[in-house]
Amino acid sequence: MSASIVNRYRYPFLFLTIIVFVAVWWVVAKIVNDPYALAGPVSTAKAYYQLFAQSSLRNLFITSIESTLLSIFLGFVLAVAIGIPVGIFMGRYLVVDYLVDPWINIWYSIPAIAFVPLVMNWAGLTSISALIVSFLIAVFSIIINVYTGVKNVSASLVEPAIAFGISKRALYTKVILPASTPNIMVGLRLGITRAIEGVIVAEMVFSVVGLGGMIFDTADKLEMSLTIALVIVISLISIALNYLMKYLDHKVVFWKESSALKRE
Amino acid sequence: MKKSLRVMALEQKTVSTFKQILKIEGISKSFVKDGKKVQVLEDVSFEVREGSFVSIIGPSGCGKTTLLRIIDGLVKPDSGKVLFNGELVTSPPPKMGFVFQQFGLLPWRTVRKNVEFGLELRGVNPEERKKIAERYIKLVGLEGFENHYPHELSGGMQQRVGLARALAIDPDVLLMDEPFASVDMQTRELLQRELLKIVKGALPKTTLFVTHNIDEAIYLSDEIVLMTARPGKVYEIIKVDLPQERWKEDIRAHPEFIRLRQKIWKFLESQIIEKEMGENESGKA
Amino acid sequence: MERRNLVAQEVIVEQRESWIDLNTIQAKVIFTIVSILLFGAIWELAAKLINNHVILPTPISSFKALYLLIQNKIPPGAAGVGSFESMLLQTLEITAIGFLLSSAVGIPIGYLIGRWRAAEAIIDPWINALYAIPMVALIPLLYFGSGSLIPVSVFDYQGDLLPDVLVSFIMAVFTIIINTYQGVRLVSNSLVEVGKAFGASENQLTRHVVIPAALPDIVAGMRLGLGRALLGAIIAEALLSTNGLGYAMLAFQSILNTPYMVATIMVIAFIGFVLLQTPKLIERRLFKWKETERIKRGGNE
Question: ABC transporter domain spans which residues (chain B) (predicted)?
Fold first, then answer.
């Protein structure tokens, strides 16, 4: 099958793969034949109906989504609001760099979940805690990327500016900052993913709040069809948010075809 | 300070009505690479008269790019000095324009905003900037592209923007660092011709041009500074005795052109061979 | 020519003459030490201000707890947390097995879908989706599901390590697949063309062109996968298991012994730091040629 054929009919093909996926799922569920281990697409669909029909469940569902989304949004916004300036200052002032750098590397390499108990002690089993965790996890990723962007601005942009007689300050505002926007956008894309993960991890540990909590709770009670239904919901939310960031990336960095996003 | 006989002869021939706008004296520069000191330039001296087009040509790695940057004050030499209009150059002088090989356009700015860049830094007000920029955009033949972005333009067009940007600040001297090296051959010849029509016609400018393309150097210049392989020294300064307004005929077939080309090629060839043999070239001065 | 590879900072540094040469290693070392001391001081101050050793223990009590922890002196009431060695070993074991499994599975899969150029238009959206989905959300599904699936006897054998390993595996495998996929896909077409022009078979192409070219990305994926495997192990232990560092961390928290909790976190942080940084150093040595390209492409992990 040549690439051109696939390309032309890519949406139908994509749809086909989804159908294939669901079919395989159905078959595997039938084989496993244990509703406590794996729920099939049919029971999952029923679970969706439950989520919208049963008022108690629906309320819980809606509250959970609200809580999770709020935590993600606020945690991420905070991470961006703090991460970008810190990254820039680190790039600009070597003193700041040397002082802050060791900590960035250390905090960044701590597995997300290790933050949870600490934050739990501070803000309890609430969505605020989830927010804080999400902030902590996202902010270092953003700082690192912003810093890399600022420090790695190509000389072919800086030299002309200096040749035309630019002050240090103007160099930063007119050249280095705009030139590091691709990296900043990558940082944001990575940041949103981490923010989402942070929130879900925290919520799962708490198990009483948010979608993560609901997922953990239903799985614990072996209500697998509900669990899968909820996992699909958070997946779709996450995919949507990622897509939003990707779109933002292309809009802001309009001069590049793609700010490559490859890693974690 | 040893000077070649040629240089001394040239100096004596210099008519005092032509102002000496640039004087490069005894420039030496070394870098440290992998812990070893590399002497890139050694005791380079020459002069540029007002209104002339001077090319600097030499084998790769002879430091000509570094030399240009030293002249513009972007790099500090180890010893020696550069005098621009009689004053010592320590940082990029406002009246020197520079055109870069990689264009160096700010990708998030339109063509016009890029051309305005130097004016912006000099505090020219927005209306004035716009008018000036548009004038120079027209001069380099990009009228109609003011609101395009660099990534929408071809390499040749981008370099025209670079040229407009450098000219817009009304420099006394135009420095060009292998400006057409990143462009394909046909576009290159086109740009050469258009450059001449500007700096030797519509808007006369003293130009210092670095290249490793022999034809380009001969076609464009009044004088050619030949540099040796690393450490770069001035080997000879050749006067190009070809008619002005060279864009009007097929100058590349001119016998003098061919003679010069052979001469320079012979020199470069010897330099490259010697460099590859790893011997230390002592410039024949 | 020599200047072309310079980065902005080097250009600017040449312009500037500062009164302290901050670019030396000595300066960096001094500042690192100052930074650590500063952090310790702030921590101490905050702890004293809050004056509640459950919420924020002082640095000293935390380090004391760390010291005791390593010597196996577990506080009473820490329900069945086991010895320090056992918890450390379990975490490392799960991480290691999860990582090895995910590499063994992830790299071949990533390679195959990376090579299948024709299907790129279909595969790409799935990869993007895979990348976006928070794998942690799958964990309860996996754990409880597998708990039902796998016979109890197997559970007992490994001291119920298997579900934990599964979690660690899932967390790591997708990262490895995605990075391998990207690495393989981005092998420059011209390189492959050169191989084909010299009559290389598919096998030879794979061995001599594609894999070496994709190797930096594959290795980077493995490095990230290692971190993810650790994350998975800790999460599995914290949520679902009864021993290991993750479990211990929460156990200490539940008896409100925060100094010990912080100590455990420090151990985890240390492991995380080592697992992340050591491969980076090795990578930098091995793959000098890819370094500039990576900066160009963006995306620092």
Answer: 22-256
Contact residues, chain C, for B76 at CB < 8 Å: 14
Restricting to C residues 4-23, those with a Cβ less than 8 Å away from any Cβ of B are 4, 11, 14-15
- Contact A165/B74, CB-based, under 8 Å? no
CA distance C178 to chain A (A): 8
> Closest chain A residue to C264 measured between Cα atoms?
A114
> Both C30 and C169 in a single domain?
no
Alpha carbon distance A76, A89 (integer Å) = 20
Cβ-based contacts under 8 A for chains A and B: 53
Picking from C11, C33, C50, the residue at the C-terminal end of a domain is C50
Q: Please, which residues have CB within 8 angstroms of residue A224's CB and are 6 or more apart in sequence?
A: A35, A36, A37, A38, A39, A43, A218, C141, C144, C145
What is the C-alpha to C-alpha distance for residues A40 and A42, in angstroms, rounded to an integer? 5
Q: What average pLDDT does the segment A68-81 reach?
A: 96
- Yes or no: say if A124 and A132 are a contact pair by the CB < 8 Å rule: no
Same domain? For C190 and C79 the reply is yes
List, for residues A90-124, the tens digit of each pLDDT value.
Answer: 988 888 888 888 888 888 888 889 999 989 888 88
Do A254 and B98 make contact, defined as CB atoms within 8 angstroms?
Answer: no
Domain boundaries, chain A: 1-33, 37-255
Of the ranges A147-151, B108-112, B230-234, C145-149, which one carries the lowest mean pLDDT score?
C145-149
Contact C14 B40 (CB under 8 A): no
Ordered structural domains, chain B, with CATH: 18-59+77-94+171-252+260-266 (3.40.50.300), 103-169 (no CATH)
Q: Is C229 on the interface with A (CB under 8 A)?
A: no
Average pLDDT of the residues of chain A:
88
Contacts of C288 in chain B (CB under 8 A): none
Residue A4 neighbours by CB distance under 10 Å: 10
Q: Are residues C123 and C236 in the same domain?
A: yes
* DSSP single-letter state for residue B47: E
State whether C118 and C246 are in the same domain. Answer: yes
- Which residues of A are less than 8 Å from B91 in CB distance? 165
* Closest residue of chain B to C3, computed from CA coordinates: B66
Is the Cβ pair A117, C249 closer than 8 Å?
Answer: yes
Q: Are residues C11 and C123 in the same domain?
A: no
Q: Which pLDDT score, from 0 to 100, does residue B7 have? A: 56
Q: How many domains does chain C have?
A: 2
Count of positions (residues) in chain B: 285
pLDDT of the residue at C301: 37
CA distances from C24 to B35, C124, C255 (A): 15, 45, 48
Structure tokens at A107: 């905090």
Cis peptide, bond prior to residue C279, ω within 30 of zero: no
Q: Give the residue from chain C lying closest to A108, CA to CA.
A: C273
Check pLDDT > 70 for residue A142: yes
Q: What share of chain C is helix, strand, coil (3-state, %, to 5)?
A: 80, 0, 20
Token pair 């007000």 is found at B125
Please report all neighbours of C, defined by 3+ CB atom pairs within 8 A.
A, B
Q: What is the pLDDT of residue B254?
A: 87
Residue B180 CA to residue B191 CA, distance in Å, equals 8
Quote the domain boundaries for residue C159. Answer: 59-297
* Residue of C54, C231, C252 with shortest CB distance to A111: C231
Q: Which of A155, A196, A243 sits opposite C7 (nearest CB)?
A: A155
**Amino acid identity at A13:** F
Pair of tokens at residue A20 = 């294939």
> Domain A37-255 is classified in which CATH homologous superfamily?
MetI-like (1.10.3720.10)
Residues C15 and C63 in one domain: no
- Is residue A166 within 8 angstroms of chain B, CB to CB? yes
DSSP at B211? E
CATH of the domain at C248: 1.10.3720.10
Q: Does B60 touch chain C (CB under 8 A)?
A: yes
